[in-house]
Amino acid sequence: MRILRPSDASALAAAYVRNREYLSTWEPMRPAEYYTESWQAADITSRLVAADAGEGFPFALFAGDTLVGRFNLAGIVRGPFQSAGLGYWVDSNYAGRGLASAAVRTIVDTARDVLGLHRIEASTLLHNAGSQRVLLKAGFRQIGMAPQYLEIAGKWQDHNLYQVVLHE
């Protein structure tokens, strides 16, 4: 796992194309352009600007040369909050192998030890048991449920809310 690079745009677009149907249940509806190299290059560029400002970090997970996962530590807020949000997915061909759990644990350690954050939050759809297991294995605790929290797959859906406090 490493920070995304502009040169990863093609691999990222290919991963999204490969997983388009699989991710459609778990993500917002995307325009056709989202699955292109040019869209992903622009997105990577904007996320790297945010990384330079310390506001978020776009990670990619690789199996050899194949991009098989995307993890975003985003919305970093400093001051008394010292918090960030986490979003992620793993390629359908690699799901269920513990890769997401290991990557999220690495991000938690980095957020605590390198970035000095106090808290990370994440959310899952109520029926996303796999993602819930990933978060629990990484030390997250469920802290509530938010009705109609995010528009996923074309409709506003309830989400379970999780957090990990990094300095307990």
TrEMBL record:
Residues 1-162 form the N-acetyltransferase domain. InterPro entries: Acyl_CoA_acyltransferase, GNAT_dom, N-acetyltransferase. It comes from the Bacteria. It holds the Pfam family Acetyltransf_3. SUPFAM superfamilies: Acyl-CoA N-acyltransferases (Nat). Keywords: Acyltransferase, Transferase. Belongs to the acetyltransferase family. RimJ subfamily. PANTHER family: [RIBOSOMAL PROTEIN US5]-ALANINE N-ACETYLTRANSFERASE (PTHR43792:SF8), GNAT FAMILY, PUTATIVE (AFU_ORTHOLOGUE AFUA_3G00765)-RELATED-RELATED (PTHR43792). This is GNAT family N-acetyltransferase.
